[in-house]
Amino acid sequence: QLQLVESGGGLVQSGGSLRLSCTGSGLLLDRHVIGWFRQAPGKEREAVSCLGTSGGRRNFVDSVKGRFTLSRDNAKNTVYLQMDELRPDDTGVYYCARGSTFCGASVPIESFHYDLWGQGTQVTVSS
């Protein structure tokens, strides 16, 4: 069964850090574009970042550039989203998803290109 599972969310103070994990089951993550999205209460889901296949292209939305980074551990079949300098407006449920499109610095991250989603992990940043 194909599955993505996120973990690592929690409550953190403004300025703090969290590392989210996205672990795959039934699929090898380094063969797929993996996107991160988030949804704040009362708001639409928005893109955060994407990581390309083994070549490692990355893209980040402007609001997280310079604060969030992506990495991959193929041995653990896991993609990580390191989030530093967290702000209250980073609060939301974070999802990882498998993409069927290209991930690159100038390519918009569109959720309709992503077809397999995890259950999400809650991130709450207090002021």
Explain the overall architecture.
Strands 2, 4, 5, 6, 9, 10 and 11 form a seven-stranded mixed sheet that branches. The protein has a four-stranded antiparallel sheet with strand order 1-3-8-7, with no helix packed on it. A hairpin with a 4-residue loop joins strand 7 and strand 8 (78-83). It is mainly beta. The N and C termini lie far apart (40 Å). It contains no helices and eleven strands. The chain has strands at 3-7, 10-13, 18-25, 33-39, 46-51, 58-60, 68-73, 78-83, 92-99, 114-117, 121-126.
Topology diagram in text:
Elements: E1 3-7, E2 10-13, E3 18-25, E4 33-39, E5 46-51, E6 58-60, E7 68-73, E8 78-83, E9 92-99, E10 114-117, E11 121-126
Parallel strand pairs: 2-11
Antiparallel strand pairs: 1-3, 3-8, 4-5, 4-9, 5-6, 7-8, 9-10, 9-11
Summarize the structure.
With 127 residues, this protein is an all-beta fold. The protein has strands at residues 3-7, 10-13, 18-25, 33-39, 46-51, 58-60, 68-73, 78-83, 92-99, 114-117, 121-126.
Number of strands: 11
**Class per helix and strand makeup:** mainly beta
Q: How much strand content do the residues show?
A: over 45%
What is the helical fraction, as a range of percent? under 10%
- Give the averaged pLDDT, no decimals: 95
Features:
globular; 50% strand; 4-stranded antiparallel beta sheet; 127 residues; 7-stranded mixed beta sheet; mainly beta; single chain
